[in-house]
Amino acid sequence: MRNADFLTGITTSGTPHLGNYVGAIRPAVESSKNKDLVSYYFLADYHSLIKNYDPRLRKQSALEIAAAWIALGLDYENCVFYRQSDIPEIPELTWILTSLTAKGLMNRAHAYKAFVAENQEKGLKDPDKGITMGLFSYPVLMAADILMFNARKVPVGRDQVQHLEMTRDIAARFNHIYKKLFILPEVVVDETSAVLSGLDGRKMSKSYNNYIPLFDTQKRLRKLIMKIKTNSLGPDEPKDPETCTLFSIYKAFASKPESEQMAVRYRRGIAWGTVKQELFEYIDEILEEPRKKYEELVKNPADIDDILKKGATKAREFSVPFLEKIRKSIGIHSLG
Ligand code: TRP
Fold this sequence. Notes:
- With 336 residues, the chain is mainly alpha-helical.
- The chain has 2 domains: 6-195 and 300-329, HUPs (Rossmann fold), CATH 3.40.50.620; 218-295, Tyrosyl-Transfer RNA Synthetase (Orthogonal Bundle), CATH 1.10.240.
- The protein is built from 12 helices and 5 strands.
- The strands form 2 sheets. Strands 1-2-3 form a 3-stranded parallel sheet. The chain has a two-stranded parallel ribbon with strand order 4-5.
- α3 (89-98) packs across α6 (133-147) and α9 (245-253) packs across α11 (272-299).
- The relative contact order is 0.15.
- The structure holds tryptophan.
- Tryptophan binds next to β1 and α6.
């Protein structure tokens, strides 16, 4: 197995939703089919340890995320699809990297700083209250995920850009101190992939609890779409598509001419009920087949395990010998 042209991780917390689909899953599924590229996609289950202490939820989330990616057409034969926790070389590399990562670098991480700031705002005596070493050194584990497979490009959301800068920093430091083994990975923030609005008009996100799950029942999908917030303009009044949550969701799924056509109908005046019904039908049709596959898959978790294990075997064809090289370069190998 070759090193990764593209690599990205998905934290196993929560249920996959429409926002995940247009932002991450859809573009990843596309590139998973490219025969000229080696793409690595993995379930970042060790990362999920820092925010979720419920073992059942973690397991359920891993199952749902893996099933969703497969059901939506991930070419898991062509790409490398695995669980982080099936690659023991990753935590091993994490410690090696931890030992040369400047604490000052981690002090500057946005997620950590936000936590500290919140504690300070609350007037707490200890600004580090509630902060685990897992949260603090999260970026090092992420660096190990990426460097373990010498990934060239890492597609992520905007909030992860700083982590990639840290990864490059850590890699450069290793290369300088020991041996030039690591490629400095490039971050890819896809400006064309859509950021979806949620039920309340803010970005669709698990943390705002405003999301539409990908694979709920058809009835629930309809109900949630009907709940999307709109303004109180009457059915015949002209409406502005550009500021409308419904339209932004429609646009993320429909073709360009279809969206343009919808925008014209907005400006002429269209009833909210009609837009919602059409949006529901549009998304439902896209999800109909994948939903069946998904339901089949979650009923047979052993099949998913099998796919992920095969992925881990492929990934380890790279990580095992590479870690050996890394160990050699730091002076941890046979004493002979
Ligand atoms: N931290 C990423 C997120 O929350 C998930 C992740 C873990 C990741 N390891 C990674 C992304 C390695 C890219 C590469 O979205």
